[in-house]
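User:
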Amino acid sequence: MMEPKDGDSRDALFIFVLVAIALMAAMFVTAVVAQWYGGNLGVFGDFFGGVLNPIFSFLTFVGLLITIVMQQKEIREAKATVEKQGFETLFFQMITIHNSIVQSMDLRTLANPAKKIQAKEYHGRDCFARFLIHLTDEVEAAEKNGSPNALHDGYKAFWARDRKDLGHYFRYLFNMIRIVENSAADTEQYMKLLRAQLSDYELVILFYNGAMSTSGSAFKKYIYKYALFDNLPDDLLLDIRHTILYNDDAFFDPKVKREDPKSFLEGWRTSYIDAESRELSELDSVIEEIALDAKHVGITRFKLEQAAGNNLKEYLRDAIAFRNGELGYMEEH
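Assistant: Predicted structure:
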């Protein structure tokens, strides 16, 4: 009761006091009954006076226990506060180091007088946009060479080319996530803060690293658990179909209600096209609108495209034209 492993001693103290009071009450009643039937009530006053001192001593002891319990609670709260502050300090120090690693990156391209291309330097997060260009070039080269798995072979060539810059970055990011995961802190809250630190191009490179790299596959359990690609701009992927390299947990919080893509598409068309007046000139904004709404119900852009017959733009264009009765357009298309 004095040093509980979990919580404090309130429950144990409550039971102890109840038992003590019950015993005292039983002893008091027994003494009164005995004195009453014995006909010796004169000594009852002496008995009662003799009992008061032990009762007051007991109440003093109970007060001491209550003080101990209150101190336990205060100490535990103070300890939790100190631990939280210590972890927050460590976390933001890790964020600072992560940003310094990113800012220390630099790439240089060589001049090509024949193509009138000048040498150029990239620093910090700008390097990740350049990394994506490198990856695109390597995948296209693998396709031209007839590779049966151009993405895999292209990424392998890309990693051999840029691992000197990205190796340290990925190792530190992985260990930072692991430290947060193993802490007693609110991991979800801190992972959201960490996820917010990653730029669009960082997310894209992390996407392909987790899918294509053997060592990067260790990231997957964290990618799924914390939906690290929640803010991934899928238009930056080499191909929208690459989203099938991960299951939906990588893109959506587990709390997000998932809807069937085809049912969603049909319902959206009924509510926002058939029931409203849309113009073909609004097509691009309509595509952005439905893609955003789909994301809110756990549907990736690729699955939305699949539900629309692998051509969402044409599906929506035909739906708007049909709603507006543009028969000439429908006959042409």
